[in-house]
Fold:
Amino acid sequence: MAVPGITEDELALIRSVVLLRFIRRILDRDARILEESGVLKSPELYTGIIRGAERRASLVQHEIMAEFQKRRIKFLRLTQDEHGIEAEYLCRGYRGAIKMLWPVLRSEISSRIRAYLGSGSTSFPETPLSEPTMNLAAPE
Structure:
């Protein structure tokens, strides 16, 4: 349900807050799993990267919440079901809601987590170890 006079930027801010709630939970859970697993010899290396991403996501969320105050937007409630989520909000006295389906949510969360981790969407080509990539022999 759309709110009269709400801008696309404001809807994007609301979507971002929803995504950031999930992102922060996911990153925290993943870091705790790595810390508690006992599988890695140096889990602090990996958890440090994850915690850094979590801090970046937190900073963005705080900036958005400050913007919410300026624009008189208040996040009310988040509900989920088998299809996706619904976020309810108030914008300048009008009640509104946005819905996001799980496939869209998962894709956007994955993309943003990559960005917060600093890996972007760059994929590296897979080169088999047995295939030489450089000729290291001295010239004859």
